[in-house]
Amino acid sequence: MSLPVLDLSRLDAGPAEAAAFRADLLAATHETGFLYLVGHGIPDDVVAAAFAEAERFFALPLEDKQSVEMLRSPQFRGYTRTGGELTRGRVDWREQIDLGAEREPVAGGPPYLRLEGPNLWPAALPGLRRVFTDWERRCTAVAERLMRAWAIALGGPADLFDAAFGDRPSTLIKLVRYPGRAERGQGVGAHSDPGVLTLLMIEPGRGGLQVDTPAGWVDAPALPGAFVVNIGELLEFATDGYLKATVHRVVSPPEGETRLSIPFFFNPALDSTIPHVTLPPALAAHAPGVTRDPDNPISGTFGENMLKARLRAHPDVAAAHHPDL
Fold first, then answer.
1. Backbone φ and ψ of 198, nearest 5°
2. What is the DSSP letter of 172?
3. What is the structure's pLDDT at 294?
4. H/E run at residue 58
5. Smaller CB count within 10 Å for the chain: N or C?
6. What's the DSSP call for residue 205?
7. How many C-alpha atoms does 296 have within 13 Å on its Cβ side?
8. DSSP 91
9. Alpha-carbon distance 277 to 238, whole Å?
């Protein structure tokens, strides 16, 4: 089994082809929750420049990376050393930098509003901010097209989800480097994403991503120029389980190799609740309900889901800045 490949440019090929694309999108995210997306309009040279800038960041001296370490950020932004993040209580073997929507901090309100705030940008690499601010803009445009395609495919108006995002979507970019090791093992542990939509670009020629399907774990290696797209828990919540937030993981590369990836997460404003979709009867009959896991309760409010995920993944940051949580 392999993931389906969809071409986003079909949305511009006339009404019949656009409708066929939406049907294929719905089928892929109902059946597996994962797909490859080509025809997204982001040029190859922009993709290459993003990976080159990520390489430059990880090649910085440790002191430069530690100058923006996440322990300095109440908003869980910045650099995390290899082995510094957890998934389901187990250590992930990767280093990374987290870059969120650049905003002013929020005082008061629900605890999840503490996630709003600025990034930590390394002074030693001034181009990083320019490259990934542009990447955020481009990926947001792709994500918005997908959200409108899903809205129509689910039987609603194109703007069904717009109000949840408003003019303050919660975007997050991670630059991730997986070092190789002889025993392979957990690069990042099995999990589902806490939000709505993930666009993942994998370094050309690299594998390691695995998707949990009814047929077992399926490899999802890089496809040239393609995003790997998956949905998160909020779209599962919104559709009563018709769309599936699929569990996935990354296996460490072999010893002597590395793997770079750039996931982009497109999510509603922190205080927004994703709307419940009134599914057409033909779809509702195949909606099994939201996954019930007492160890991972799913909320319709994005901020609650995201704060849960951050506190669990980075207990050192939680202890330093949010001991009351």
1. -125, 130
2. E
3. 72
4. helix 44-58
5. N
6. T
7. 23
8. E
9. 6
Q: Strand locations in 154-226, DSSP E?
A: 170-179, 186-191, 197-202, 209-213, 216-219
From edge to edge, which strands make up the β-sheet containing 95-100? 5-7, 34-38, 227-231, 197-202, 258-267, 170-179, 95-100, 78-80
Q: Please tell me the distance from the alpha carbon of residue 136 to that of residue 65, in angstroms, as a whole number.
A: 21
* Cα–Cα distance for residue pair 301/287, rounded to 1 Å: 20
Task: Name 128's Cβ contacts closer than 8 Å, sequence gap at least 6.
Answer: 53, 56, 57, 121, 122
More confident residue, 4 or 292: 4
Q: How far apart are CA 324 and CA 110, in angstroms?
A: 13
Q: What is the residue whose two structure tokens read 């309760």?
A: 297
Angle CA(257)–CA(204)–CA(212) in degrees, nearest 5?
85
Whether 160 and 275 have beta carbons less than 8 Å apart is answered as: yes
Contact 250, 208 (CB under 8 A): yes
The secondary structure of the chain in percent helix, strand, coil, rounded to multiples of 5, reads: 35, 25, 40
CA 257 to chain CA centroid, nearest Å: 24
What is the biggest distance separating any 2 CA atoms in the chain, rounded to whole angstroms? 58
> CB–CB of 263/94 below 8 Å?
no
Q: What is the mean pLDDT of the chain?
A: 94
- Helices vs strands, H then E, count in the chain: 9, 14
Q: What is the band of 165 on the pLDDT scale with cuts at 50, 70, 90?
A: very high
Closest CA to 173 of 75, 96, 263, 95: 263
Q: Are 209 and 202 in contact (CB under 8 A)?
A: yes
Q: How far apart are CA 244 and CA 147, in angstroms?
A: 15
